[in-house]
Design goal:
Protein name: protein-glutamate methylesterase
Number of helices: 10
Distance between the termini: 45 Å
CATH topology of the largest domain: Rossmann fold
EC number: 3.1.1.61
Helix content: 40-55%
CATH class of the largest domain: Alpha Beta
Number of domains: 2
Low-confidence stretches: none
CATH architecture of the largest domain: 3-Layer(aba) Sandwich
Mean pLDDT: 91
Strand content: 15-25%
Organism: Paraburkholderia piptadeniae
Strand order of the largest sheet: 3-4-2-1-7-8-9
Order of helices and strands: EHEHEEEEHEHEHEHHHEEEEHH
Number of strands: 13
Largest sheet: 7 strands, parallel
GO molecular function: phosphorelay response regulator activity; protein-glutamate methylesterase activity
Pfam family, one: CheB_methylest
Length: 334
C-alpha cells in the first residue's frame, strides 16, 4: 500500500468555504502536511488564523526554509509562490502564473517533482485554470489526484480544467472531501483510466526547474517548448508553447506562465482595454471639435461650424461602434 504524506490544495473563488469545512473534519493526528494556495494576491490574509480556529490542526504562513511538518497546514502568504523541496518550504516573488501569485501550479509542480507518489493533489472551486498543469504533473509522477465535483462548486472552471488535463482518482463533494483525502493518504489505489496525453516526466521536471529559476534564456525555453507568434499579456514578451496540449500552456522568458483559459482571459482584458482606450481618444476628439465649434460660433465662421459638426457626428458614430465592440467582447466572456 502506497501511503502519502504531502497534500497540496489549490483553489480560488468559492474555495474559502470549502476549506472551512475541510479543516474542521481533518484529524488532529493527521499523518501528512497540508499546503494550501488560495488566490489572494497581495492582500493581507488572516486565513491561517481562521483555519486554526476552525479545525484541530495548526495553520500558518511558513517562513522560507521552514521544515515540512506533518499535522500542520501551511498557507501560501500574500504575493509569494510557495514551493516544496528537500524537506522544506520555499517562498519566492517570481512572476505570476495564470495571473496569480501565489498560484497553485508552482506548488503542485514542486511537490510532484520532489515527492512523486507521496503527493495528493487537490483542486477546488475557482475561476479559469490554475492548477490544471500542476495536477497533470502530479499525475505524471504517480501522485493521487482529487478534484471537487464541478456541480458542487461556486466556480467550476478550475476543477473542470483540472479534470480535462489530468483526470481524477476521486471526484468529490465538499461533504466527502476530508474522507477522500484521508483515503488517499492511507493508500487508496489510483483509478484505472486512460492516461492523458502529456509530456514525458523528464520534460516536466525540466519545466519545473526552469519555472523556479524565474527569468530564463530563450535557448532554455527552446528545450521545453516552441516559440509561438503570441506575446505575453503581462509583459509583452514572446511566448513559448510548452509541452503538449493537455493542458495547452505557454511561458515567457521573464517567468510568466499561462494555461489556455488564463491566457484567453488575459487577451480578452487586453482587447477590452484597447477598445476603451480608443473610445477615450475618439471622445477627446469630439470634445475638442465642440470647443472649436463654439469658437467658430463666437467669430461667426459658418464654414468652420459645419466642418466641426461633421467631425462631431463622425466621432459619435465611431464611439457607438466601439461601445458595441466592448459589449460583444464582454458577451463572449460570459
Amino acid at each position: 500500500m502506497n501511503r502519502r504524506d504531502i497534500v497540496v490544495i489549490g483553489g480560488s473563488r468559492g474555495a474559502f468555504a470549502v476549506l472551512r469545512t475541510l479543516v474542521s473534519r481533518l484529524p488532529r493526528d493527521l499523518p501528512a502536511a497540508v499546503c494550501i494556495v488560495l488566490h489572494i494576491g497581495r492582500h493581507e490574509s488572516v486565513l491561517p488564523e481562521l483555519l486554526s480556529k476552525w479545525g484541530p490542526l495548526p495553520a500558518r504562513h511558513p517562513v522560507a526554509g521552514e521544515p515540512i511538518v506533518k499535522g500542520t497546514v501551511f498557507v501560501a502568504p500574500p504575493g509569494r509562490h510557495m514551493v516544496l523541496s528537500n524537506g522544506s518550504l520555499g517562498l519566492n516573488e517570481g512572476a505570476a502564473e495564470n495571473f496569480a501569485r501565489p498560484a497553485a501550479d508552482p506548488l503542485f509542480r514542486s511537490a510532484a517533482v520532489h515527492y512523486g507518489r507521496r503527493v495528493v493533489g487537490v483542486v477546488l472551486s475557482g475561476d479559469l485554470d490554475d492548477g490544471a498543469a500542476g495536477l497533470a504533473t502530479v499525475r505524471a509522477h504517480g501522485g493521487f489526484c482529487i478534484v471537487q465535483d464541478p456541480v458542487d462548486c461556486e466556480a467550476a472552471s478550475m476543477p473542470r480544467s483540472a479534470m480535462k488535463s489530468a483526470g481524477a482518482d476521486s471526484v468529490t463533494t465538499v461533504d466527502d472531501l476530508a474522507r477522500n483525502i484521508m483515503a488517499a493518504i492511507e493508500g487508496a489505489a489510483l483509478r484505472q483510466q486512460e492516461e492523458p496525453a502529456m509530456s514525458s516526466e523528464q520534460q516536466l521536471d525540466l519545466e519545473a526547474r526552469l519555472a523556479q529559476q524565474g527569468i530564463v534564456t530563450p535557448e532554455e525555453l527552446d528545450r521545453i517548448g516552441v516559440r509561438s507568434s503570441l506575446t505575453c499579456p503581462d509583459c509583452g514578451g514572446a511566448l513559448w508553447r510548452v509541452g503538449d496540449d493537455r493542458p495547452l500552456r505557454y511561458r515567457c522568458h521573464t517567468g510568466h506562465a499561462f494555461n489556455a483559459l488564463s491566457l484567453a482571459d488575459g487577451y480578452s482584458k487586453e482587447s477590452e482595454n484597447a477598445i476603451r482606450a480608443a473610445i477615450r481618444a475618439v471622445h477627446e476628439r469630439v470634445i475638442f471639435a465642440r470647443e472649436r465649434q463654439r469658437s467658430a460660433e463666437r467669430t461667426g465662421d459658418a464654414a468652420q461650424i459645419g466642418i466641426e459638426q461633421a467631425r462631431i457626428e463622425e466621432g459619435e458614430r465611431l464611439i457607438r461602434m466601439l461601445r458595441n465592440a466592448v459589449s460583444e467582447e464582454l458577451s463572449h466572456d460570459l
